[in-house]
């Protein structure tokens, strides 16, 4: 039996902008030995799910086409974290912890892009002042447009102020742990306990 796990990004909005697809195979296993009753009938047998462990459970990452670069990147960072957690064997994380750490990665990626744009902006503005035909452009290494700077700040603010338990509260607990203990230590603690360090 195949179960597809879908992960949504979108701060509990009705539209889905990104998905991390993973595959799980679940078989039934006997949890309590049966007793044999009258007429050789099996009685009192209890079964439960048993998840088969596979080497690679991530089958695809899907992102809505046509979104602005910063929004696409932040969604991709979020979904890549879901993939990392699956591939590295992080099992049984609550939605709040899993979505929270994924939002942390999305937020960290946005911060790095905003900082990179701010530092690249100085060199670019002095170069463009010598050429009147140079228009501000957005590229990986070039200056960010004013629109892109504002969009990045807006997306970051959406993550920071999200009111949902999974995405918002999860992000706030996750970013506090990462700022205090670092990303690697936070992930190690999550693997051992299933929760953020406090």
TrEMBL record:
GO molecular function: ubiquitin binding
Top-level taxon of origin: Eukaryota
Location of the Protein DA1-like domain: 10-192
Pfam families according to UniProt: DA1-like (PF12315)
Record's protein name: Protein DA1-like domain-containing protein
Provenance organism: Triticum turgidum subsp. durum
């Amino acid at each position: 039996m195949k179960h597809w796990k879908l992960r949504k990004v979108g701060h509990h909005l009705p539209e889905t902008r990104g998905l991390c697809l993973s595959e799980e195979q679940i078989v039934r296993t006997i949890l309590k030995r049966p007793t044999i009753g009258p007429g050789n009938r099996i009685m009192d047998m209890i079964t439960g799910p048993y998840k088969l462990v596979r080497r690679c459970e991530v089958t695809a990452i899907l992102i809505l086409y046509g979104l602005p670069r910063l929004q696409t990147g932040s969604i991709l960072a979020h979904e890549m974290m879901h993939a990392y957690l699956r591939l590295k064997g992080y099992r049984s994380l609550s939605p709040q912890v899993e979505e929270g750490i994924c939002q942390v990665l999305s937020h960290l990626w946005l911060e790095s892009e905003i900082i990179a744009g701010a530092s690249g902006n100085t060199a670019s503005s002095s170069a463009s002042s010598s050429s009147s035909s140079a228009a501000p452009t957005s590229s990986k290494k070039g200056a960010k447009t004013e629109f892109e700077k504002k969009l990045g700040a807006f997306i970051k603010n959406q993550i920071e102020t999200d009111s949902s338990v999974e995405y918002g509260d999860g992000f706030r607990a996750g970013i506090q742990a990462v700022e205090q203990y670092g990303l690697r230590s936070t992930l190690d603690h999550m693997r051992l306990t299933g929760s953020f360090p406090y």
